[in-house]
Amino acid sequence: MIKIGDKCPDFQLPDATGKVFKISELINKKKLIIYFYPKDDTPGCTLEACSFRDRYEDFKDFDCEVIGISSDNEQKHAAFATRHQLPFILLADKDKTVRKLFGVPGNLFGLIPGRVTYIIGVDGIVKGIYNSQTNPLGHIEKALELVRTM
Length: 150
Prior knowledge:
This protein has a single domain (12-149), classed as Glutaredoxin. By secondary structure, the chain is α/β, with parallel strands linked by helices. The protein has helices at residues 43-61, 74-84, 97-102, 138-149; strands at residues 12-14, 20-22, 31-36, 64-70, 89-92, 116-120, 126-131. The chain starts with 11 loop residues before the first strand and ends with a helix. The strands form 2 sheets. The chain has a 5-stranded mixed β-sheet. The longest helix has 19 residues, at 43-61.
C-alpha cells in the first residue's frame, strides 16, 4: 500500500480517447491529484467528478493536473466526461492493476472499489492521501489546500 512519503508508482493506462497515458510524462513537471473512484455515472462518483470539474481551474492555478481512475472502459469514460463536461483526464484501469499497485482498499465486503485520492508533488512523492469511501466531496477541499502549500 502506498503511503505518504512514497514515490508515485510508474504506470500507464488508456485514457477516455483510447490513447495510452503515461504518468511518467507528468512526474517532475506538475503536481498531481490521482483519484480512484468506483464507477462512472453513479450518484457519488458523479458528484465527486463534478466537484473536481468545478474546482479544476483552481487546481490548474497551482500547476496541478487531476486524474480520475476507475475500472470502467474508455467508451464509458468518454461518455461520462462528455455528459458532465469533465475537463480532466480519466483513465481506464479495467483489470484494476493500478488500483492494486497503489493498494486502494475496497469497502468492508470488497464489493465496491475504494474511493481514495493521492496528492503527488512535482517531485513524484506522495504528499497526502484521503480515503473517502463514504464522503465523495470531503477530500476535494483538503486536497486543494495541500496543493496550495506545496
